[in-house]
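Re: that backbone. Tokens:
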């Protein structure tokens, strides 16, 4: 997010808070304006209802007067037309008002009820007609009273209540007018109900006009006082006194139309109070509306001014920040690319000015160090590096580098002098080495010729020793075969000896069997003798078995003697065979040793020949190496000469640097 956006957000925070507060104020003003509009509509309703009430009161009085015979019908019809016109205006105002819907419905039904009343007026008594008219008028006054219960502002609801109370006083005056005009026109004695009726209306009228609840405009008390001292009020009092004075007798000596006219003047005066209070209310409502519009205009103007001022402030503040920052960024980019010639030089004394001044000083220090580096590059190491402060790490590193560079070049100068002397000595030594290598190469060539002759003789000896070793290996193989054959003979004789021993054991077993058979035959003869004549046959068999066992024993002994003799001969043959095998083993071992000696001689001869060959090769390599050494010595001599020249050139280059 850019700095302009951040500053805009920062500025919008108080603007937003003010906007919220302004919106609350605007909402409150708009609500109050709505209430003012409602009160204007309701005031129009009160005015229309007041006019309609006045006309219905006149129609009521004239109708009652007509029924009493005190007025012509044409005047009643004329009054009805006037009442209808006012009721139409009342209906329009009722539709535009903002009061309770039930009250609106009741007021809208007044024209219909009035038509029904007019149609049946001829069949009703004067009192009933007055009562029915009073009910309709009460609906109009109820519509006026509903306005006091609707939304109001700044205490004007009390004024509406006062107007309704004045309308009630006007209605009581209208009832009094209708009753007095009808009674005077009849010119008869009054009954108590009629007397109480006119007294009640008169009392209600005075109570209404003198009620503490009347709290309208400041001029209202004076206006009421003016009515109470007016001729109409005095005429009403006179008429009322005459009627009361002769209520039980009749003969009031009054004209019904004159009574109607006198009380009509009083009622008109009371109606003027309503007109004046409504005028005051409308004036106050106009003032409130004007004040609200002014507050709305001021709030919107302040908001727009604040918005414009904030936008302008944001623009200039952000410009005062972003423009130097943009220059600072371009300056930093130039420094990053290596251009140390640019400077900001804003000249302001705020924080940004201090920052740009510090950046300019930084560029000055960097340019100074770049100039020092250029001086060092030209060979002048005597330059000094000025530190910006104790924390100037770059300057300290630059100074330390210069110090070590001076020390290094000083050592290089000293070493170059020593290298210069050493190079001349190396050049002399390499020339001597080249001459010695040449003499050495001639000697090595003579040694190589002698070694070639010796190598041919040793190769001949090695060939003879190889042939003798081959012959010894053949003899060794034949002796080894004879030894193997003797071992086989020895094995065969040993097997014969073992077979003879096995035969001896077999004969011994046969002898033992014959002896046992003889014992068994003897036992059988004894048992046959014991058996008597039953054992004679068995005895004969036993004797034959015993004879057979004897012959077997004798034959076994003879065979054993023969085997013993044969065994002795086999033992003698085995002994001679073992001696011959031992002799063959010694001969084979001696032949093996001779063969090994011959092989050793052969290997030694071969190794000697190989060694001489290697020595010959070595001499040849030494010869080649010597030749290479001669060439290398010559090259070294040339290189030493070149090194001496380069050392002279290095010494000249180093002398370009100023160390002190």
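Recovered sequence:
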């Amino acid at each position: 997010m850019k700095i302009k956006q951040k500053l805009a957000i920062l500025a919008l925070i108080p603007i937003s808070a003010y906007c919220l507060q302004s919106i609350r104020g605007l909402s409150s003003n708009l609500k109050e304006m709505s209430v003012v509009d409602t009160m204007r509509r309701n005031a129009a309703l009160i005015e229309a209802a007041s006019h309609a009430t006045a006309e219905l009161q006149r129609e009521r009085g004239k109708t009652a007067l007509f029924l009493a015979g005190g007025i012509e019908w044409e005047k009643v019809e004329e009054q009805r037309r006037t009442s209808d016109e006012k009721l139409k205006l009342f209906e329009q105002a009722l539709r535009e008002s903002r009061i309770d819907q039930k009250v609106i419905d009741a007021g809208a039904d007044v024209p219909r009820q009035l038509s029904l009343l007019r149609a049946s007026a001829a069949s009703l008594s004067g009192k009933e007609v007055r009562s029915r008219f009073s009910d309709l008028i009460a609906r109009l006054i109820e519509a006026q009273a509903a306005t006091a219960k609707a939304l109001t502002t700044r205490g004007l609801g009390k004024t509406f209540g006062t107007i309704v109370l004045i309308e009630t006083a006007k209605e009581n005056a209208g009832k009094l007018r209708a009753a007095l005009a009808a009674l005077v026109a009849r010119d008869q004695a009054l009954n108590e109900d009629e007397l109480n009726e006119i007294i009640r209306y008169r009392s209600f009228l005075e109570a209404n006009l003198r009620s503490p609840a009347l709290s309208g405009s400041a001029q209202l008390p004076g206006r009421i006082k003016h009515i109470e001292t007016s001729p109409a009020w005095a005429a009403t009092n006179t008429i009322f006194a005459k009627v009361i004075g002769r209520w039980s007798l009749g003969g009031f000596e009054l004209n019904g139309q004159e009574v109607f006219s006198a009380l009509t003047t009083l009622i008109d005066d009371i109606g003027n109070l309503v007109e004046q209070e409504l005028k005051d209310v409308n004036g106050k409502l106009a003032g409130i509306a004007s004040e609200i519009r002014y507050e709305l205009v001021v709030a919107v103007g302040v908001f727009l001014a604040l918005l414009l001022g904030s936008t302008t402030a944001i623009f200039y503040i952000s410009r005062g920040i972003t423009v130097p920052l943009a220059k600072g960024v371009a300056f930093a980019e130039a420094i990053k690319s290596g251009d140390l010639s640019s400077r900001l030089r804003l000249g302001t004394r705020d924080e940004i000015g201090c920052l740009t001044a510090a950046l300019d000083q930084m560029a000055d220090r960097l340019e100074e160090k770049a100039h020092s580096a250029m001086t060092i590059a030209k060979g002048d190491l005597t330059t000094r590096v000025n530190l910006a402060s104790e924390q100037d790490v770059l300057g300290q590193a630059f100074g330390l580098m210069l110090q070590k560079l001076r020390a290094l070049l000083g050592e290089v100068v000293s070493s170059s002098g020593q290298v210069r002397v050493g190079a001349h000595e190396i050049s002399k030594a390499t020339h001597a080495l080249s001459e010695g290598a040449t003499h050495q190469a001639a000697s090595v060539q003579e040694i190589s010729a002698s070694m070639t002759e010796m190598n041919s003789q040793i190769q001949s000896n090695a060939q003879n020793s190889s042939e003798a070793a081959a012959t010894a290996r053949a003899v060794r193989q034949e002796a080894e075969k004879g030894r193997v054959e003797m071992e086989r003979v020895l094995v065969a004789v040993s097997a014969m000896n073992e077979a003879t021993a096995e035969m001896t054991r077999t004969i011994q077993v046969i002898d033992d069997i014959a002896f046992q058979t003889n014992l068994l035959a003897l036992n059988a003869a004894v048992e046959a003798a014991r058996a008597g004549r039953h054992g004679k046959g068995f005895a004969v068999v036993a004797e034959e078995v015993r004879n057979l066992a004897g012959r077997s024993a004798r034959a076994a002994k003879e065979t054993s003697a023969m085997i013993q003799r044969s065994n002795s001969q086999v033992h003698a043959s085995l002994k001679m065979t073992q001696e011959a095998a031992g002799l063959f083993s010694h001969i084979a071992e001696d032949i093996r040793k001779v063969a090994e000696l011959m092989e050793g001689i052969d290997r030694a001869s071969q190794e000697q020949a190989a060694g001489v060959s290697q020595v010959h090769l070595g001499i040849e390599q030494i010869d080649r190496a010597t030749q290479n050494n001669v060439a290398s010595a010559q090259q070294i001599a040339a290189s030493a000469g070149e090194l001496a020249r380069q050392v002279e050139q290095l010494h000249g280059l180093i002398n370009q640097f100023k160390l002190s």
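The chain has a mean pLDDT of 81. Residues 280 and 609 are 152 Å apart (CA to CA).
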